[in-house]
Structure formats: structure tokens, C-alpha cells
């Protein structure tokens, strides 16, 4: 079984949905009529995944939706992408070169969106994680590796602050922390006959949409924690081990 990343796609698939593109991806702005539009955008091609600069052409302004559409072909694979700038700034009146929001279709191949519940992370950990996503989405692989390590360090610093030594030793200390079992203990308590979840399952309480949403979220977090996460860590470990193995010798010396 391959990894089941929840917030990204597999090696050869891409999400076909509309995607919100950060304005930082815009390399330069052009004008059409009295409106600005992204003249070039830099991102990983949705089709071939090469990090490339798309030169946008055929700008068309939709007066009713106040939206500027433009298209470009990937210089590598020739496939077309389309962008939409919402409420593009006017060239008159000294407005900045920008639009209120930028959409792209299809979604860039390597783009990852932050996980749900980001606001629950401590500030420095959230920043390290966001920085990691930023450099990843910009296609800067070396910096991504470095920031992944910084984020791992922020995790152990937060969850096992008393642990010392190398990153491996600090994670070993974290693995023995009783805090890790706390959510399961809380769940067990809630499932008891007198507990809140126990009462819910016994139908002694009315069900509503908020409760149903919270329960489904709980299931998903548990499934990730107990099944997806262990499989992902094992898969990553195997993948890195295979990459480090020497390449097989060529079958023939000819050529
Ligand atoms: Zn391409």
C-alpha cells in the first residue's frame, strides 16, 4: 500500500480543482485596458511538475464578474493552464499592481495546503511548518529539507522540552512521554457509561450537526494517528533506504 497523504497528491496524479494561488507566484504584471493582470507566474506545472514560468496571454476582462482571465502553455509540455484575477487593480489612480485574489486551473502539481487545525499549533512551530510549505511550493528542495528538520526540532522542543541531545534522542524521549497516550485516555473516559460520548452513543442525547461533525473529525484524527501516520513513517523510511542503495550495475558494458 502506498502512502495516503491527505493534503497532497501521489506521484502521478493532480487535483483537477480550482486552486487559490498566492500573489507571490506572480513574477510580473501586464496591463489590458485599464486593468492589471499577471503577466508571468512561477509555479510547478500541473501536468509535468516542472517548476516553470508561465507567460500569460489572451487577457480577457469579465465586466460583470470583475475578473481577468488569462492562459499560458507550459514551455516544457505545452499543456495549457488558466488563471483568474479577481478585482484586478486599475492602471489609473496609482493603484498597486495586484488583484484581490488569484485562482488557477488546474492546481499546481506540487502545491500543498496547510493541514486543518493549523491554529492549534504553537506559534514558532506553526511558523516553521508554514515556512516549510512555502519553500516546498516554491520548489526549493534543499531549503525544504532544512526546514523539515527545523520543524521536527520545534515539535520535540514543544512536546518534550526537558529532552536533551541529538534529534534522535529527543524523539526517543518524546516516544516515552505519557502525553502521547493522553488523547486515548480522555477518549476512553468519555466512552464510559457516565461519559459524554457514552451518553451520545446510548442516544440519551439529541444528535445535531455540530456533534456529528465533531465525531467524524474525531474518527479521522484517530484513523490518521493509528493507521495512516505509522504507514507513512514506514513508507518514508523504506523509500529513503532504497534511494541509498547503490544502483544496479548495467547489464552490458556496451554503449
Ligand atoms: Zn508542463
**Overall average pLDDT:** 85
How many distinct beta strands? 8
**Beta-strand residue percentage:** 15-25%
Q: How would a crystallographer describe the biggest sheet? A: 5 strands, antiparallel
Distinct small-molecule ligands in the complex: zinc ion
Overall, the morphology is: extended
Tally of helical segments? 6
Q: Which class do the helix and strand fractions yield?
A: alpha+beta
Secondary-structure element pattern, one letter each:
EEEEEEEEHHHHHH
Q: Evaluate the radius of gyration.
A: 24 Å
Helix content: 25-40%
Summarize the structure.
The protein is extended and about 70 Å long.
Descriptive report:
The chain has helices spanning 123-137, 141-159, 167-175, 182-191, 196-201, 209-244, and strands at residues 19-20, 26-32, 35-44, 51-55, 57-62, 67-73, 80-86, 101-105. Mean pLDDT is 85; it is low at 1-14. It is of the alpha+beta class. Helix content is 37%, strand content 19%. The strands form 2 sheets. It has a 5-stranded antiparallel beta sheet, with no helix packed on it. It has a 3-stranded antiparallel beta sheet with strand order 2-3-4, with no helix packed on it. Among the domains are: 19-105; 112-176, no CATH class. It contains 6 helices and 8 strands, in the order ββββββββαααααα. The structure holds zinc ion. Zinc ion is lined by residues 45, 47-48, 50, 74, 76-77, 79.
